[in-house]
Amino acid sequence: MTATRSIIAALAALVASPALACSPAPLAAGTVQHDGVCGIYYNDEAYIARGISDAEDLGGGFVAQYYFEGNACYGRVSMIVADCAAGQAAVFGPGPTEGPAQPVTEGDVWKQLEAQVRGGAEAGRMMSVAEITAHAKGARFINAAQVTIPGRVGISNDEAQPLHDFNLGCGCRAFYPGSPGAGL
Fold this sequence. Notes:
The protein has four helices and ten strands. By secondary structure, the protein is of the alpha+beta class. The strands form two sheets. Strands 1, 2, 3, 4, 5, 6, 7 and 8 form an eight-stranded antiparallel β-sheet that branches. The protein has a two-stranded antiparallel sheet with strand order 9-10. A hairpin with a 4-residue loop joins strand 6 and strand 7. It is globular. The N and C termini lie far apart (35 Å). Mean pLDDT is 86; it is low at 14-20.
């Protein structure tokens, strides 16, 4: 299962109607749900949640999270890669709209960059935040930013003003507590 699919599956577990896989139950607008280490979702509307996923240790001082907008049937995701030692994070995306009935097409640029980041981490050759950001800017993603952490950063998967800001240093505090990204 891809990371994006696991995020949508996690959100589906939080909001889906058990009777129909792609008929999300209405959310209690204005409520907040926490997910694992540093994950938080805001139920802004009856059928739309926005938030960041559970933090994942990629190794070597790097942490990944995903920003999500959507529901159990579809969503758009941006990836956040934090370099805890450098106190910097790359935010890139969003990827294509994806869900149980909307698989991502082969060759998608966002999926390629996500795979390159994850493959580098698995091989012990993690891309730098600057390299990730340069690729994202070259692909003309809406989100293609390098940000300083710790700190709160607003993220949106369209060009609208972000509704929420998120503490991108939380994963560094959880996995690399003595790092600059954790807020020494």
